[in-house]
Each structure stands twice: as structure tokens, then as C-alpha cells.
Amino acid sequence: MEYTVQKLGRLAGISTRTLRFYDEIGLLKPARVNGSGYRIYGQAEVDRLQQILFYRELGFGLDSIGAILSDPSFDGAKALQRHRQQLLDKRNQLDALIANVDKTIASAEGRIRMSDKEKFEGFKQRMIDENEQKYGKEAREKYGDDTMNKSNAKLKNMTQEEHERLTLLTQEVTDTLAEAFKTGDPAGELAQKAADLHRQWLSFYWPQYSKEAHANLAQMYVDDPRFMAYYDAKQPGTAEFLRDAIQIYTGSGH
What would the DSSP string read from start to end of 85-148? Predict the structure, then answer.
């Protein structure tokens, strides 16, 4: 079946303006334009739009979605299986936060006593689930289930002080990397500081650190289009710059 912009917009529950924008940026091109100048979408475009909306629901940016769908290795059926698992993970995140809110209400009303650790369990579980959702498949294939399970356990047992430090460190890595990129020198002092901050950031996730694993992870940032799209979102070339800086930092390159 074929659809005009108006009909596809009504079917998908999105505006015709959004569909036209997706066409303009090359994310979703129509199958053809008819003699009257109307965009016409076929089954392949309907299926692609479904994938786009799934990824949007999961919080992916348009650049990242475009990179994923354009990857020659993209498999629609496998992607739907991943979408299903990610949506289940998202539901689990919400359930954990709702349970945390219910406990907090009961504690405020004097019906139960809630430890400081319990107050933050929902947030830590959300962090674990989001990490699994974004990077779990690749990380488990690369490092194994045992390593990932230990990493998740480490995150869940974080103290509130550690959680706050991780939050600040995440932003510090991003800011320092952005400034270092402007220098164009992955061996420079600022770039090496970014690499060291990245190592510190990893220490909150990994049960143990190794230079080899750090360098391998940095290479994955370049090899995987999703990671590259994330790091290159504001400054194209950032993923490769970080990879080079980490390789120099770990002594595995240049």
C-alpha cells in the first residue's frame, strides 16, 4: 500500500512537517514523487519509519538513527528483537522508580523506615538498565557475561557519594574532551587529561582496569556507528580523536 505525506502522518501519529524534515535530512526519503509533486511512501518506507520512531522512543538522536539504519550490517528483524528488550528494560526502570517513590511516601508517612541506600536504589538500577540498553549487547560479546555482571553489581553497590562523583565525572569527561578536540593534538596535555578522566570514569563500571581493554573500547567507539554518532554529535571527528588520545595514553598506538 502507498501513502501520501498526510496519510502516513495520520497513520504514524506524527506531523507532516516531521516527515518533510526527515526527507530533507535524508533520514526517510519517499519512494517516489508523483506527477503532482506529492511525496509517495511505500512499504519499505513505512517499515523504516517504524524503526525511526522506535529509536526516537528510546532516546536516540536523529544523527545516531541515521547512522544505525544506514549501516550495511543493519538487520531489521534483529533490531525489532532489540527494541523489544530495550522497551522491557525501560519498563523495568520505571517500575523500579515507582517502587522507590512508593517506599519514600511510606517512609514520609512513618509507615516504614527507609535506609539512605534504599533511597537511591531506583536511580542506580536505571543507570544499569540504560547502560545495558545502549551498550550491553556489544559489551557482553566483547568482554563476556561474567565481566558485565560484575560491572552491574559494582554499580548497584555504589554509595551515594560515588554516584555523585560519577555524575560529575561524566560531565567532566565530556567538557574536557570537547576542549581538547579544539587543540587538534591527541598527545597534548588536555587530550591526555581527557583520556585519564575517561579511565577514572571506567573504574566505576569495570571490575578491574586494563590498558588493553581501554584501548579496545576506544577503537569500538570508532568502529561502531552508534558510538561514533554519539561522540561526533557536536564535533565530527571526536570519536577518532578520543580513540587516538586513549591509544597514546595506554601506549598502544602512535
Answer: HHHHHHHHHHHHHHHHHHHHHHHHTTSS---HHHHTHHHHHHHHHHHIIIIIHHHHHHH-HHHH
Q: Which of 231, 229, 240 is nearest to 186 (CA)?
A: 240
Residue 3 β-bridge partners: 41
What are the chain's domains?
A: 3-57 (1.10.1660.10), 76-250 (1.10.490.50)
DSSP for residue 42: -
The verdict on pTM exceeding 0.85 is: no
At 182-203, the pLDDT tens digits run: 999 999 999 999 999 999 998 8
Query: 32-40 long-range contacts, Cβ below 8 Å, gap at least 24?
Result: 38/4, 38/5, 39/4, 39/5, 40/2, 40/3, 40/4
The span from the CA of 178 to the CA of 156, in Å, is 29
Q: Which cell is 226 given?
A: 552508534
In whole angstroms, what is the distance from residue 163 CA to residue 156 CA?
10
Residue with cell 519509519: 49
Q: Which residues of the chain carry a pLDDT beneath 50? A: 254
Residue 88 near residue 129, CB atoms below 8 Å: no
Give the count of beta carbons closer than 10 Å to the beta carbon of residue 39. 21
First to last CA, the chain: 55
Give the residues across from 234 on adjacent strands: none
